[in-house]
Amino acid sequence: MSETLQSRPVLVVDFGAQYAQLIARRVREAKVYSEVVPHTMSVAAMLAKNPAAVILSGGPASVYAAGAPSLDPALLAAGVPVFGMCYGFQAMVQALGGTVAHTGTGEYG
Asked: How many structural domains does the chain have?
């Protein structure tokens, strides 16, 4: 029996976004099971859930600020599709060796 998207979760990695739960709900409305997980969860623990995909949420921090949450590059090398939104996208850029620079203006998604 092959696995379907309904038997494998889409993980929503919460970087502190007010809308992480909304993202998970929208995924569920598409008839796909989703779970919100903390950004502190290890890649091994995420992969143990056999995710169909991972969505990285936004968050209130700036990736270049001291102490900002980071993303383990192992997640991006695991062969699971990853979609980053706002902060999550910037965390992906840094994890892949790119640069996120401060522009001097506010960042709002």
From this structure: 1
